[in-house]
Amino acid sequence: MGSVRVPAPAGPTLLSASTRSRGERRQRLTAWGRGAVKRLRHLGLDISGCDVDDGGLLFVPDGRLTLTLDAGAVEVALVLPPSDLPALRTILDGARPLAMGTVLAALPEQFAIGASSDTVRIPAPRASTEDLHALLDRAEREGGAVWLGWTVPREVAAVHAATLDAQLQDALVALGQVLKLFARARSTDAEPGKAKRARRHAGGAGEEERGRDKPRARTRARERDREPEAEREIEPESAADPDAPTPRVLRPLEAKPRLRASLLRRGVPRPGAGIEKGMKVRVLEGPFAGKEGLVQELDGNGGARVMLGLLAVRIDVTDLVSSAEGRGRPRLLSSHRRPMPVRS
Predict the structure, then answer these.
(1) For 81-125, what is each residue's pLDDT tens digit?
(2) Residue 59 — φ and ψ, nearest 5°?
(3) Dihedral pair phi/psi, residue 72, rounded to 5°
(4) How far apart are the first and last CA of the chain?
(5) How far is the C-alpha of 84 from the C-alpha of 91, rounded, in Å?
(6) Taking Cα atoms as reference points, which of 54, 57, 23 lies closest to residue 40?
(7) 30 and 146 part of one domain
(8) What domain range includes position 63?
(9) Is the model's pLDDT at 4 over the cut of 50?
(10) pLDDT tens digits for 195-227?
(11) Is residue 301 domain-resident?
C-alpha cells in the first residue's frame, strides 16, 4: 500500500517560518495575525491588532489571546490574568454559570483548561462547575492565571503543517467565543452604574428634545432596514435616540451566516437529514462554519462527533449538512474528449 501524501503548503507556513530568519518569521506571523484579527473582530471583540515577538504573538489591547511557537509545541490560548479572576468567579457564582458551561462544551476535545502552574490540565469541554471552582480557588491561592487553549506537539504540527495555520485560526475563533462571554459579563456588571449616572446627568430637561428626536430616529431606522447589511454604518451617538440601546456594529460575517440559506437554494438536502457515521459533512454554524469534516460517531442526543482535521468537535446534527464531495458523484473531466488509451 502506498503512503498517504499530505499536500504541500502553497506558501510559507508558521512552522516553516519559525526555522528561517527573524525577518521571515516576523513577516509570516504578522500576516497570520492580521487574518486572525479580522475574524476576531467579526465576533464583535475589541481587538485592535497583534504584537509579534520571538515567542509568537499576542492580540492587543488586552493581550489575553496568544499564539506561541517554541521548540516543543505550537499553541493558541486564552489567558485570564489574576486581575480577571474576580469577574470569572462572578460568572461561576451566579451570573452565567450555564452559559460558561455551554461555551466550554462547544470547544474541541483537544482544548484543555487549568491554572498557569498546572502541569496537567483537564479537558475543557468536560469541565464541570465544580472543576472550574476548584481551578479558580487554586489560581487565586497561587496568584496565577487561568489558561485555556490547544497545544500541538511539534512533531504533530510538522506532519500537518499544510493545514495547521488555518486550524490554529479556527481554534483562536473558538477561544474568542469564550472571551466574548467573559467581556459581555464584565460590561454588564459595569453598565448599571453608568446608566444611572447618565440618567441623573440628563435630568428632566432633555425629555422634550428626546420627544422631538424619536420620529427622526424611526425614519432613520426604516431607511437603515432597507440597506444591505454589508453597507450599514453606525450613526453618531449625538444623532441616535438616547433611550435606545447602543447600536451594534454590523459586519458581513457578524450577521447570521447565509451558508444554510444558500445551500437550501441550491437544492442541498435539509440540514441534519440523513447524517450517518462515516459521512463527510459541512458545518453550517459556529466558529467552524464552512469547514468540512468526517462524522466519527453519533451520540443519540442529536449530536455528532466530527473530525475537522486535528480537531474533534461535538456539533448538533441540525448544524450539519452532507457534503456534495466524496459521496459517489462523478468527477467532470476538464475536456469533453475521453483520454486516449496508451498503446504498448
Answers:
(1) 999 998 888 888 875 668 888 899 999 999 999 998 888 999 999
(2) -95, 130
(3) -105, -25
(4) 26
(5) 11
(6) 57
(7) yes
(8) 14-184
(9) no
(10) 445 445 444 444 444 455 445 544 544 444 444
(11) yes
